[in-house]
Amino acid sequence: MAILVMFRHGQSVWNLENKFTGWVDVDLTDKGKKEAKEAGEKLKGMHFDYAYSSDLKRAQETLKIALNEAGISHVPTTYDKALNERMYGDLQGLNKADTAKKFGDEQVHIWRRSYDIAPPNGESLKDTAARVIPYFEKEIAPKLKDDKNIVIAAHGNSLRALIMFLEKMTPDEILNFEIKTGVPREYQLDKNLKVIKVKNL
């Protein structure tokens, strides 16, 4: 049986400022660093064979702080843009409230919460899943099937794609599924990656 733990990065500067972040490489806030440490507290006593993060520093820093806090060092770590946040295109850097005033609440809600409608020049959740899940199946799944324990630090939408895949959720179910910053979600998986048990730590 393999253990997979994944968590969303701690609060970023643009989370705090209520901006669409996407692929813009912004730092963690002090609160975000605290959330990363709290995630690490929950990982104490666990063993991981491999660690993964996105290509963005808010996820990488969260992972580093959490593993350090947990006393877990020397874990082979891979950073890959396949695990990046959803690309928000023309909305990146815009304040969410201002964007709603500009385009209308309904249109922004569609961009944010529909499964397959992307913002201008950006990705939908379906597009995000189309890069996250093949990467997971190629790079991470074989290790889990070999009973290796893995930890992933990533983003709200890249993690939604993985959770949808692992828990066999519908698009509607995953769009209404909230992922809080810095809260580890632990999966116990069998050889076929069937979920035996799942819980937030």
Automatic annotation (TrEMBL):
One of its GO terms (biological process) is gluconeogenesis. Substrate binds at residues 8-15, 21-22, 58, 85-88, 96, 112-113, 156-157. Keywords: Gluconeogenesis, Glycolysis, Isomerase. Its EC number is 5.4.2.11. The record marks 155 as: Transition state stabilizer. It catalyses: (2R)-2-phosphoglycerate = (2R)-3-phosphoglycerate. Gene3D superfamilies: Phosphoglycerate mutase-like. The active site is at 9 (tele-phosphohistidine intermediate), 85 (proton donor/acceptor). PROSITE patterns: PG_MUTASE (PS00175). Coiled coil: none annotated. It comes from the Bacteria. Belongs to the phosphoglycerate mutase family. BPG-dependent PGAM subfamily. Catalyzes the interconversion of 2-phosphoglycerate and 3-phosphoglycerate. HAMAP family: PGAM_GpmA. This is 2,3-bisphosphoglycerate-dependent phosphoglycerate mutase. The gene is gpmA.
